[in-house]
From TrEMBL:
GO terms for molecular function: oxidoreductase activity. The keyword 4Fe-4S applies. The keyword 4Fe-4S applies. Activation of anaerobic ribonucleoside-triphosphate reductase under anaerobic conditions by generation of an organic free radical, using S-adenosylmethionine and reduced flavodoxin as cosubstrates to produce 5'-deoxy-adenosine. Its EC number is 1.97.1.-. This is Anaerobic ribonucleoside-triphosphate reductase-activating protein. It comes from the Bacteria. Its cofactor is [4Fe-4S] cluster. Keywords: 4Fe-4S, Iron, Iron-sulfur, Metal-binding, Oxidoreductase, S-adenosyl-L-methionine. It comes from Lelliottia amnigena (Enterobacter amnigenus). The lineage of its organism: Bacteria, Pseudomonadati, Pseudomonadota, Gammaproteobacteria, Enterobacterales. It is an enzyme of class 1 (oxidoreductase). NCBIfam families: NrdG, PRK11121.1.
Length: 154
């Protein structure tokens, strides 16, 4: 997996104070996408074990308390990202007690593959669906267009 940006302290991309990771790779090509530079799988930089360690350390940092982590992109559930995202999510569950995990994807919850569902089984919130420009509504919270759904899973 590759990624574009990592914000160790973020108050914009999800509730509370969080860590946010924007991964590379998205097949959805939504017109009006605000993050086109992340579409190519080979864009950005490699997501290394050291980067995963840093995220775990940041989530456990007691000086700046994080509510959890946001995984966005690009698409964290791109078929080529799923195994690395699953490994990261498993580590967060095992090593960062009490932290929530929010994932943004262009896939709909009802069309996920078994591998993608393995990730969804471990997260708290999935914001799903493509961005549809005609359904754009700036008043929406955590989503850009009204077709997208914020699924509070657990
Ligand atoms: S799913 Fe998200 S990142 Fe992918 S094209 Fe659509 S808006 Fe852009």
């Amino acid at each position: 997996m590759r990624y574009h940006n990592y914000y160790p302290v973020d108050i914009v991309n999800g509730p509370g104070t969080r860590c946010t990771l924007f991964v590379s790779g998205c097949v959805h090509e939504c017109p009006g996408c605000y993050n086109k530079s992340t579409w190519r799988l080979n864009s950005g930089q490699p997501f290394t074990d050291e980067m995963a360690d840093r995220i775990i350390d940041d989530l456990n940092d007691t000086r700046i308390k994080r509510q959890g982590i946001t995984l966005s992109g690009g698409d964290p559930l791109h078929p080529q990202n799923v195994s690395d995202i699953l490994a990261l999510v498993k580590r967060i569950r095992a090593e960062c007690a009490g932290k929530d995990i929010w994932v943004w994807t262009g896939y709909r919850l009802d069309e996920l593959s078994d591998a993608q569902k393995d990730v969804v089984d471990l997260i708290n919130v999935l914001v799903d669906g493509k961005f549809v420009q005609d359904l754009k509504d700036p008043a929406l919270i955590w989503r850009g267009s009204s077709n997208q759904v914020v699924h509070h899973l657990r």
